[in-house]
Amino acid sequence: NIVHTQGRVHCHSAATDASGLVKAVMDELSEYFTSEKLPGNVRVAVACCLNMCGAV
After folding, report:
1. Alpha-carbon gap, residue 15 to 8, rounded angstroms
2. Any idea where the domains of the chain sit in the sequence?
3. Rounded distance, CA 35 to CA 2, Å?
4. 6 φ/ψ angles, rounded to the nearest 5 degrees
5. Calpha distance 37→2 (Å, rounded)
6. Going by C-beta distance under 8 Å and a sequence separation of 6 or more, which residues neighbour residue 49?
7. Could you tell me the CA-to-CA distances from 28 to 31, 37, 43 in Å, in that order?
8. Is the Cα torsion angle 14, 15, 21, 27 positive or negative in sign?
9. Listed residue (37, 34, 45) closest to 9, CA to CA
């Protein structure tokens, strides 16, 4: 799900128990965050439990 709030885009993934998914997503996206190539504020949260563990 993609949620737009207060000028920021939040992408929510389904809860998963696979930490490998978290590593794969962050490995793929890390260059965009470190080089500031994205046009606006983006926050990506991937969590391993149903309440998102405070990730959002």
Report:
1. 21
2. 2-54
3. 23
4. 50, 45
5. 20
6. 15
7. 7, 13, 14
8. positive
9. 45
| 3-34: pLDDT as tens digits | 444 555 555 556 555 567 777 877 887 787 77
Query: Which string of DSSP letters, residue by residue, matches 1-56?
Result: -EEEETTEEEEEPPP-S-HHHHHHHHHHHHHHHHTT-SSS-EEEE--SSTTGGG--
Spatial CA neighbour of 55 closest among 9, 5, 15, 3: 15
CA 46 to CA 21: how far, in whole Å? 8
Nearest to 29 by CA among 13, 15, 16, 43: 43
pTM of this prediction?
0.41
